[in-house]
Amino acid sequence: MPDIEQINDQISIERQGDIALICINNPPVNASGQIVRQGLQDAVTRLNAENTARVIAIYAAGRTFVAGADITEFGKPPQPPALPDVFNVMEASTIPLISVIHGTALGGGLELGLATHARVGIEGLRVGLPEINLGLLPGAGGTQRLPRLTGIPFALDMCLSGRQVGAKEALENGIIDLLVSGDPRDVALTAAQQVLDGTLPTRRTSEVETQPDDNALAETAAMLKAKQPHMFSPHKIVEAIAASTGPLADGLKVERQAFIDSMNTPQRAGMIHAFFGERAVSNIPEAKGPAREIAKIGVIGGGTMGSGIATSCLLAGIPVRLIEVAQDGLDRGIATVTKNLDGAVSRGKLSPEKRDATLAMLTPSLVMDDLADVDLVIEAVFENMDVKKDIFGKLNTICKPGAILASNTSYLDVNEIAAATTRAQDVIGLHFFSPAHVMRLLEIVVADKTAPDVVASGFALAKRLKKVGVRAGVCDGFIGNRILAHYSKTASYLVLDGATPQQVDAALEGFGFAMGPHKVGDLAGLDIGWMTRKRKAETRDPNERYAGDVADRICEHGWFGRKTGQGYYIYNAGAPIPNPEVANIIDAVRAEKGITPRTFTDQDIIDRYMTAMICEAARVVEDGTARRPVDVDMVFLFGYGFPRHRGGPLHYADTIGAAELLTRIKTYAVEDANYWQAPALLEKMAADGTTFADLNKGA
Ligand code: 3HC
């Protein structure tokens, strides 16, 4: 019987002669919460006090090494011992102390390894310092010990990208000392023996000096200043790594202060909301039920959307039958899929060796009957209800019983589409975002009669495609496009009333959007919004202030944005420049409508835009189109380029507060009472003091 001493629930010591093994066991990902920290500190202290073991090896049980600090503890009062202190105790151990890393060692997990005297990796491992994705920086020695091993440029890259580094790269860059295969405990025993034999050298990382590299630091600092001026932690990462050339204790102090400062920013709160939100959206009973098996998928439509969807499925290893009505359309579809896969190879998402085999899983066809054997059909033809109904009527007779019939419609009534079949239980909306093989959002639109296992299949598919599946109810535009249709009018009203499109774009880019709404319109094609406005012209509320005058006139010139070389901006080589003709159009529209332009500050623009977004988002939660506020937040983060560090529109709303939002709505309503109506949910929240975060917990 092995001699195992349980230090606490999550840490144990196994003594094997001269060797002591410390095992970390905190499923599912061995996060270093308080119990792990305390146990590690106690175990190392005790073994040093006993002074009988001649080597200590730390390994972890389960599927992975340590995934980092316990993120659920962030934002709460810190519980000692702090991670950096535990790692200092480990590094100071007079008995050689090594770690065995399998699965992923992320954040505090990698920092744990760096504090040991040698690291043995198990094949397949990935290491990273992803704290930047949480609005933080490595706070337990990562910015100090990593550059000592890898040099400053590599450490800057790892900390600023947050990327995961594979086993080979980790070995080449000195992060691990040895790469082997095997079970973590067995490897720990063998490696410990190698330390005893003298075949695995050990040393304290603090004894290694960081090679100074002022150029890399200065260049990176300048790049961040230009590209991410509004972000907090990236700049702190550079400062902390710069401090790694001095004594470890001094550098750790700089890192600690920077970590505490980052922890106190709203950016950290927003990004941690994003981390848990991404997981919460599929943490609902409907997503967890039994799903239907999907081994083969049919995609109808070889346009940009259909080809992107087909690419996404192929990249997940699922064979696709692509259907088009005419040969030229089919050829275009095949060409687009081929181009997408080549792009995936160049981005490192698909290995060059697998490219041909992946493309070979695409079987193009002009015959709908070829969909008889697929398990799921995704229709991605243009947005016309009659065309969709006709297709679903045909699928009803062609597809095998139990096949899932999905529409990629971005706003049409999925109940009406389902009614074109005699198997409404098999019909669902699967709304992808363009480019579908890149964008991570998938709205799973549940119609009245959609069967539970079809809904679960939608979530299972999202997972296979590495997408974030969010449940949405049926309404015009579902969650995302419905909210977009509402708040995008604000940008137009601001321009009509005095702002320039460039000012609106710049203000919102300053807020954190990658592109302002006019640049997005130019990129997507202004004709899309034009068609929508025409479609909705007859049903438009007569009391609504029309928002499309300027955009309509731009489109009447045939200027649809990037694809025609001009829209709000002119696209020649180099950066886009504002289109002077648009300024004339705006002046003309204002003159016709008797509008005297006024001044808006950038903050006015942000406040109005965000308040409009929050209003419709609140209504979407109120009427159940979205199950919870976090579902809306994730739709915007993963489908609409909402800045991750703001957490999503409703997380951001909590930072303003319902009462302040109502005050704003009242102020704006003086100008346009029809548009600026307070959602009942916000009124209730202001009255009873609840927040969107409370609603997330309650759901
Ligand atoms: N703390 C607390 N919970 C965590 C966690 C962490 N660090 N990492 C993952 N979890 C939870 C997830 O929320 C999820 O919970 P749920 O089942 O209730 O939804 C569960 O563990 C499993 O996680 P995943 O679903 O993400 O499992 P995967 O196998 O897909 O991925 C992983 C595993 C790659 C480890 C991924 O979870 C991950 O990237 N985790 C975060 C890693 C990270 O950011 N670490 C840095 C933390 S900050 C830090 O260390 C600060 C330090 O420098 C002081």
Automatic annotation (TrEMBL):
Pathway where this protein functions: Lipid metabolism; fatty acid beta-oxidation
GO BP field: fatty acid beta-oxidation
Keyword terms of this UniProt record: Fatty acid metabolism, Isomerase, Lipid degradation, Lipid metabolism, Lyase, Multifunctional enzyme, NAD, Oxidoreductase, Peroxisome
Main location, first listed in the record: other
Range of residues in the leader sequence: none
Listed InterPro entries: 3-OHacyl-CoA_DH_NAD-bd, 3HC_DH_C, 6-PGluconate_DH-like_C_sf, ClpP/crotonase-like_dom_sf, Enoyl-CoA_hyd/isom_CS, Enoyl-CoA_hydra/iso, NAD(P)-bd_dom_sf
Keyword Cell membrane part of the UniProt annotation: no
One MF term in the entry's GO annotations: isomerase activity
Recorded superkingdom: Bacteria
Domain spans labelled 3-hydroxyacyl-CoA dehydrogenase C-terminal: 477-571
SUPFAM superfamilies attached to this UniProt entry: 6-phosphogluconate dehydrogenase C-terminal domain-like, ClpP/crotonase, NAD(P)-binding Rossmann-fold domains
Reaction equation(s) it catalyzes: a (3S)-3-hydroxyacyl-CoA + NAD(+) = a 3-oxoacyl-CoA + NADH + H(+)
Limits of the 3-hydroxyacyl-CoA dehydrogenase NAD binding domain: 296-472
Subcellular compartments: Peroxisome
Keyword Ion transport in annotation: no
Family label: In the N-terminal section; belongs to the enoyl-CoA hydratase/isomerase family. Belongs to the enoyl-CoA hydratase/isomerase family.
Name of the featured protein: 3-hydroxyacyl-CoA dehydrogenase
Organism per entry: Thalassovita taeanensis
